[in-house]
Design goal:
This protein has 187 residues and is an alpha+beta fold. Strands 1-2-5-4-3 form a 5-stranded antiparallel β-sheet, with helices on one face. Helix 1 packs antiparallel against helix 2. The termini are far apart.
Length: 187
């Protein structure tokens, strides 16, 4: 098994590509070791000293490290943990664990606008963000303000504010005049 790694715009996060499907559908975010209890793979990666977050996409695993460790010191252990997991035959997600489909539900008078926002996010934003090892999902819409949740490499990334304001906000405002601002939310 050959696992590729790619850097992300977030210097604290690396993207690992095991060369096979990680999740059939959706994403899974593990911002802490406690959250990783439902995933044998995430638990194994959190076993590496210095790992502070794990995120799964369709064909990648994104790992975030603490500032006090260097990638050169923990990358081999993470590669070993991912390889050991796939050789063990265990599932990526434990029984009964759910992956996130992404967007929050929204009903009401703005339902048509929200559907347009979700369509643009799915077609234009999420594929590009997945290339960087993260995900951005719709969280809410209130009086012209779109609230988005950033995961994986996007969470805590120094360039995420610029991505939100200059990229996503401009895109949404261009296609949907009712959108006036985009803000991140922590879930």
């Amino acid at each position: 098994m050959f696992i590729q790694t790619e850097s992300t715009p977030n210097p604290a996060t690396l993207k690992f590509l095991p060369g096979q499907t990680v999740l059939e559908a959706g994403t899974a975010d593990f911002p802490s070791v406690d959250a990783a209890e439902k995933s044998p793979l995430a638990k194994r990666i959190f076993g590496v000293n210095g790992v502070t977050g794990v995120f799964f996409g369709n064909d990648f695993v994104t790992v975030t490290k603490s500032d006090d460790v260097q990638w050169d010191h923990i990358k081999p252990a993470i590669l070993g943990a991912v390889m050991e997991h796939y050789q063990s035959g265990q599932p990526v997600m434990g029984a009964g664990a759910e992956t996130a489909s992404g967007h929050a539900e929204h009903t009401g008078e703005d339902a048509e606008i929200v559907n347009q926002i979700k369509d643009l996010l799915d077609s234009r934003v999420r594929p590009a963000v997945a290339q960087d090892g993260g995900d951005i999902t719709f969280h809410g819409f209130d009086r012209g303000v779109v609230y988005l949740h950033m995961q994986g490499a996007c969470a805590g990334c120094p360039s995420s504010t610029l991505t939100l304001k200059m990229g996503i906000e401009n895109l949404l405002r261009h296609y949907i005049p009712e959108v006036t601002e985009v803000r991140p939310v922590a879930v």
